Amino acid sequence: MQLFLDTASVTDIRTMWEIGILDGVTTNPTLVAKEGRRFEEVLREICALGVPSVSAEVVATETDGMLREGRHLREIHPSIYVKVPMTPAGLRATRILAREKTRVNMTLIFSANQALLAAKVGASYVSPFIGRLDDQGQDGMELIRDIVQIYRNYKFPTQVLVASIRHPVHVLEAAKAGADIATMPYAVMEKLARHPLTDLGLAQFLKDWEKVPKA
Prior knowledge:
By secondary structure, the chain is α/β, with parallel strands linked by helices. It has eleven helices and eight strands. It has one domain (2-209): Alpha-Beta Barrel (TIM Barrel). Helix content is 53%, strand content 17%. Strand 5, helix 6 (112-120) and strand 6 form a beta-alpha-beta unit.
């Protein structure tokens, strides 16, 4: 499974990219606004690191505007995937962009039927938001299992990108369900490498090493 960071912080992206565990980045208007920088400047800086997949979202709500923005975004760098919202206008825009060989990440997915439609119009990624479903008392991971099964049934090439991840258990469950990608905040990705027993074990090893004769 590929691991993406859901952020517009170039510092955080660079840290995980240099460690070697990062496969891509997803951004959205909220994340970019937190950085207080120009959108395209941030995108170019992220892409310059060598990240192979960087999702950049359109903000238009009608098809023609989505097409204009999507065509502009794809020209910024070959790594760009255009994020388009799951709406009737977004479906129309995705179908056209996909036919133009633009890679589209269809976002704000909350049902398996929406994911089915996204795959039918040629989306490269579909982004179901599991954390927001959990917030509403639904089982977000059940949606992931449903989408994975549907895509396997019909051999859709669209990849399942699990979004709105809140904690490491979400990542584990997404991997067990067979999702292609999990995108998460920096704090969650950092926790994937940590365990209290690892810290205790390392401390004990170092303590014991001090007892070993050095000469």
